[in-house]
Sequence to fold (130 residues):
Amino acid sequence: MQAIRTKYLGPTNHKGSRIKAIAEAGSVTVSKDHSLNDREAHAAAALQLMEKFEWFGELIGGVTHRGEYAWVFTNGPTASRLVKDAHAFKAKQDMRWIKRVMEHEGWPLSCVHLLMQRVHQNKQEMSNES
Fold:
């Protein structure tokens, strides 16, 4: 695993606002989700890079003096962190990624299913609030 840097890319005549996540291994550029605050949007881009390289762990990050974000990993995900950040995951493929992370970390299958249900409930509650 490597440290990740994320930076905002403003809109152009042909593309909307984007967030680029960069590590030594490579990078990804994702459209900025304007329903998320800045930190969440940068975290979502870092998570996309994590998924690309199949890195596991909880991301811890903060803003730098340049207005970019820097992200590092802890040893593994925690259930509370995954549930708290569930709103940053949008598609079913992201749900499969959460499940893969948890299985990789050796979580019992019953815990995986309970957390997946909780994440799904949180997403429904958030969409109902909108």
